[in-house]
Amino acid sequence: MNTESVAVTPEEHFQDKVNREVKIEPRDWMPEKYRQTLIRQISQHAHSEIVGMLPEGNWITRAPSLRRKATLIAKVQDEAGHGLYLYSAAETLGISRAEMIDQLHSGKAKYSSIFNYPTLNWADIGAIGWLVDGAAIMNQVPLCRTSYGPYARAMVRICKEESFHQRQGFEILLTLSKGTEAQRRMCQDAINRWWWPSIMMFGPSDDASPHTAQSMKWKIKRISNDELRQKFVDVIAEQVKILGMTLPDEALAWNEARGHYDFGTINWEEFWNVISGNGPCNRERIAARIAAHEEGAWVREAASAFAEKQRQRSGGKDEKAVA
Ligand code: BYC
């Protein structure tokens, strides 16, 4: 028996596929707004990975041992790889890498709010790994089931690497937490400064999120901002006990009836301020990205010239083969 529903319009056919968990692929018909939403989300995600290299890259030369240096280099390199998978996934939707980069540099496209905060000392690298990568994984694991095939497939690989990142961050903090009094203070101070920005990473609360309802209907997003944030708070409120540290929130308390931790009110004014370009490091981050892009122009030109030479050479060979 044919159980497929009879789709009348392209929109209905599309929604029916989404409802049946059939992945949408680049050549499939899709509503223009779905395509635009994906370009916005995937490119902003890619930009976050690339900008995220800056605060961490800053600590490669100052990592306290060879092992820490090697691990941090590997992590920062992974972020570059994540950016590249994501730019490639977005390109399948008909936008070029150059256009996306222009949107980042001109301020038209956003990147994660979290990377507009400074990394002041080594403990911050631990806190980023544990809290920032932890929040990123919480958000990204459901994206492995997102409705757009190339995005979902990129996320599977990214999530595997992110879980290594989170563990290395936790291990840095665990080491500090067992160290001297000064090291314990560094650890607590980093947690205090990164906690609130980390829970802002999930985005505005559901009732203030303009995109969530439609993105959930299209199964681009699988779990809402508030639900993910709550899951993250529940996990971290337990893990912080292993470090013998605390989270800087007096309202944090287990709520037996809800089966979740209650937590304090997020400073949404700070969030909107940071994402509209006025956080502590926004200008510095964009200036660093633009400088890197301009300084890398000769590499792009050399690579294009080399590709052109190869093309001409292989063209010559082909002609010989034909002759
Ligand atoms: N920062 O309606 P909403 C990482 C914007 S880092 C900045 O909820 P949506 C990593 C949002 O874009 C994590 N902007 O939107 C890398 C929208 O503005 P526009 C990166 C934010 O898209 C290196 C407006 O607020 N992860 O992985 O449905 C080292 C309204 O929001 C933020 C991703 O990007 C924010 N935190 O939901 C370590 C995951 N939150 O675009 C780690 C993929 C919201 O209309 N993205 N905005 O101008 C997503 O899952 C979703 O896009 C979000 C936002 C949950 C982030």
TrEMBL record:
Transmembrane segments: none annotated. This is 1,2-phenylacetyl-CoA epoxidase subunit A. Pfam families: PaaA_PaaC. InterPro entries: Aromatic_CoA_ox/epox, Ferritin-like, Ferritin-like_SF, PaaA, PaaA_PaaC. Gene3D superfamilies: 1.20.1260.10. It comes from the Bacteria. Signal peptide: none annotated. PANTHER family: 1,2-PHENYLACETYL-COA EPOXIDASE, SUBUNIT A, PHENYLACETIC ACID DEGRADATION PROTEIN PAA.
